Amino acid sequence: MAKITDEQLESVVKQQEELGGLLNQIGALEANKHSLLHKIATVNEGIEKTKQDLEKEYGNISIDLKTGEYTIIETEEEEDLTVVKSED
User: Fold this and answer.
1) Is the full-model pTM beyond 0.85?
2) Helix (H, G, I), strand (E, B) or coil at 71
3) What does the domain layout of the chain look like in residue ranges?
4) Would you say 75 and 60 are in contact if contact means Cβ atoms under 8 Å apart?
5) Is the Cβ–Cβ distance between 50 and 57 less than 8 Å?
6) CA-CA distance, 19 to 11, in Å (whole number)?
7) pLDDT of amino acid 79
8) Do residues 37 and 31 touch, judged by C-beta distance below 8 A?
9) How many angstroms separate the CA atoms of 61 and 42, rounded?
């Protein structure tokens, strides 16, 4: 049976080991990414809860995150539109 040189074999083995290590690192990064995405979802749920609580107490407001001062956001009420179908 034919055989590659020891130097060639050593090179191939090193490359395969390096590739395996990189793939393991990618797997660890993906697992960490997955965990961080879950944490983001949890923080967003907290933000929404706080927003709802503040809206119940103060109405629709905009908050200055540096000072805590807020301004009321004026919203225009939508007019009720009625569609009238003409008779032919």
Assistant:
1) no
2) strand
3) 7-72
4) yes
5) no
6) 12
7) 62
8) no
9) 23
